[in-house]
Write a structure and sequence with these properties.
Blueprint: E1 26-35, H1 39-46, H2 52-55, E2 59-63, E3 75-79, E4 83-93, E5 97-103, E6 113-120, E7 125-133, H3 140-165, E8 167-174
Antiparallel strand pairs: 1-7, 1-8, 2-3, 3-4, 4-5, 5-6, 6-7
């Protein structure tokens, strides 16, 4: 492909029904457009808990259940600011998508459910979609701080992820604060 040829943008929409997993509103809608990777190759990175520390800025460590190497049983991520957060897999559809719930004693978002979805055009390019659904944030301080820090923190994390998955563009739409959506 010649460097002046434009890659047509894919639709960042998903037809996947989240209602069986959450009634919480969509708060942050993110995507990384990628090329040179199959959906399986992108899913291999996004679906591997051990890789979270490679790209998510606040992730310090990942703890898998003893004697269980199966991602589907869930795992814990140790985060700066949020402590240990249990991530439970609610839906797993390799290599298209997965849905997970996150909760923890110090984690201030009480009804968090996330969707990771890979859409491709069949030519080793596509979009990795990450959607965060929640509505209940514990504590007035967290209610004030998270809308300010979470969207840029997620953007910076996705900027770190992009080279790992052939990312060409990162888009973050933030519905938490009045300044959104932002690109």
């Amino acid at each position: 492909m010649d460097s002046t040829e434009q890659i047509p943008a894919m639709s960042p929409t998903t037809e996947f029904d989240m209602s069986p997993f959450t009634a919480a509103p969509l708060m942050i809608d993110m995507q990384v457009q990628f090329e040179g990777k199959t959906s399986a190759e992108v899913f291999e990175i996004m679906g591997d808990p051990a890789r979270i520390t490679d790209w998510y800025l606040l992730a310090k460590d990942v703890h898998m259940p003893a004697g269980d190497s199966e991602v589907l049983s869930g795992f814990e991520v140790e985060f700066m600011m949020f402590g240990r957060v249990k991530e439970e897999i609610l839906h797993w559809d390799l290599p298209s998508r997965y849905v997970y719930r996150a909760h923890g004693e110090q984690f201030p978002i009480k009804d968090y459910v996330g969707l990771i979805e890979i859409q491709t055009d069949g030519n080793n390019r596509g979009i990795m979609i990450w959607r965060q659904f929640f509505g209940e944030i514990d504590g007035l301080h967290n209610q004030r701080v998270l809308p300010v820090i979470l969207p840029p923190l997620n953007r910076a994390s996705l900027e770190r992820l992009a080279p790992l998955i052939g990312g060409t563009e990162v888009i973050v739409n933030d519905y938490m604060s009045p300044r959104s959506p932002a690109k």
